[in-house]
Amino acid sequence: MNLTVNATLKWMEKMNEKVQANKEYLTELDQAIGDGDHGINMSRGFQEVVNKISVTSYETVSDCLKDVAMTLMTKVGGASGPLYGTAFLKMSISLRGKDKVDGMALILAIDEAVKGMIQRGKAAVGNKTMLDVWIPILNLFQEKQSINWNDVERTAKNSMEKTREMLAIKGRAAYLKERSIGHIDAGSASSFYLFQSLAEVARECEI
Ligand code: ADP
Ligand code: MG
């Protein structure tokens, strides 16, 4: 595979479309066990990302992802802005100096993103956060020799659904203790859209 600047722009456009279309749903998920702003945070953030990167020309994917990170960090409040911002910044740093983003480079970048999110948010696997989608995706990438995008999409969806039965240990939902069980984590839903978008772009562009 080869993730180009153009494919990266398409990835963010798709993510933005999904977030705008599911803004209410993300809000409802966050209303159940949080403060109800995840839909607003994500829709504002990814709209700003698309506004920025669609009018800028980039030499490398790394440069483009840096702008994605900076935009999310500056335009999105709450826990999710800095966490997604960190993820994209770490990916950008990991890809710096690479003219071709092949499968191996992408896996290393996602590994760095996960490490950065853990360092920032101090959450572990099973704590009912967005990491409960990111970590299974990273594990899938690391287990397989080649990336199967249908598996990526399926794993992201299943992992998001598994957060329903988890007890929240991190984030606002943790205040609810046992009452957090029975609801999908909002951040894991937005992360599902992110990996679903990447899978769709990868299949369409045959990258
Ligand atoms: P806030 O929680 O500040 O209102 P959002 O509603 O935008 O911010 O984002 C909430 C999401 O952020 C949660 O659903 C969860 O997935 C994620 N999250 C919260 N805290 C953490 C953390 N410490 N580590 C990883 N993800 C977290
Ligand atoms: Mg919230």
TrEMBL record:
User: Transport among the record's keywords?
Assistant: no
Per UniProt, the keywords (alphabetical) are:
Glycerol metabolism, Kinase, Transferase
One cellular-component annotation, GO: cytosol
Q: Which Gene3D superfamilies does UniProt cross-reference here?
A: 1.25.40.340
Q: Which reaction does it catalyse?
A: dihydroxyacetone + phosphoenolpyruvate = dihydroxyacetone phosphate + pyruvate
Which molecular-function annotations from GO does this UniProt entry contain? glycerone kinase activity; phosphoenolpyruvate-glycerone phosphotransferase activity
Q: Does the keyword Electron transport apply?
A: no
> Enzyme group, top EC level?
transferase
Enzyme Commission no: 2.7.1.121
Report domain DhaL positions. 6-200
A Pfam short name: Dak2
Q: Output the InterPro entries linked to this UniProt entry.
A: DhaK_L_YcgS, DhaL_dom, DhaL_dom_sf, Dihydroxyacetone_Kinase
In which pathway does this enzyme or protein participate? Answer: Polyol metabolism; glycerol degradation
Which PROSITE patterns does this entry report, sorted A to Z?
A: DHAL (PS51480)
Q: Matching SMART domains, A to Z? A: Dak2
The biological processes this protein is annotated with in GO are: glycerol catabolic process
Function comment: ADP-binding subunit of the dihydroxyacetone kinase, which is responsible for the phosphoenolpyruvate (PEP)-dependent phosphorylation of dihydroxyacetone. DhaL-ADP is converted to DhaL-ATP via a phosphoryl group transfer from DhaM and transmits it to dihydroxyacetone binds to DhaK.
| Subunit structure as annotated in this protein's UniProt entry | Homodimer. The dihydroxyacetone kinase complex is composed of a homodimer of DhaM, a homodimer of DhaK and the subunit DhaL.
Protein name (Swiss-Prot/TrEMBL): phosphoenolpyruvate--glycerone phosphotransferase
Q: Which organism is it from?
A: Heyndrickxia oleronia
Gene that encodes it: dhaL
